[in-house]
Amino acid sequence: MLKVILLYWSKSGNTRKVTDAIKEGLEQLDARITVKEMKKSLDVDYFDYDLVFLGFPSYQWLPPNPVREFLKGRLSADKKAGRVKVGSPRVPGKHAVLYCTYSGPHTGKNEAIPAVKHAGQFLDHVGFKIAAEWYIPCEFIGREDLSTEGRLGDIRGLPTESDLEKISANALEIAKGCMPKESSKRG
Ligand SMILES: Cc1cc2nc3c(=O)[nH]c(=O)nc-3n(C[C@H](O)[C@H](O)[C@H](O)COP(=O)(O)O)c2cc1C
User: Fold this and answer.
1) 171 CB contacts (<8 Å, ≥6 apart)?
2) How many domains does the chain contain in total?
3) What is the CATH number of the domain that holds 12?
4) Residue 186 predicted with pLDDT over 60
């Protein structure tokens, strides 16, 4: 059975919607799914899972503080455990997907790329293979100007139901590719 964790943070609900869609996709598989909201005090060992989904909004081109603090805390724990090795060799069977919701009012997707690359390093450093990076344009809740006049145009109502269905399907596809060998033979 595939062990998956969905680690996310969401203030206005967009990232939570995407997280729910990912979970829905994964539920079609023989997987044990854990969902946790990231915060500094959250004690989670990535290595207890085969597949880690890490999701957050872009706040000034980076993950928000609770996410950054969580990631930093994990990195120090991983350093202490001797898991941060020179050359960051891959650890077989360990995969991660980064997903970032953003509104891109000024420079579009470029406002989310640094956030994803930053967060991804924390898993890449300990040997997880980054299986995918998802950039999901979303309405800037509570800011009509930033949801209609920005570089992405009119993003009100995003993510749509159809966007979320695609996310569910993509999550399922990725998870199928990460199934441990014995279960994929059985399955
Ligand atoms: C304080 C704050 C800062 C934000 N900064 C950015 C930004 O720099 N670039 C961007 O594209 N979106 C920015 N956004 C928009 C959010 O990234 C976007 O709406 C996201 O989907 C919100 O996720 P959530 O609903 O899960 O909290 C910001 C939103 C807030 C509230």
Assistant:
1) 21, 22, 25, 26, 53, 97
2) 1
3) 3.40.50.360
4) no
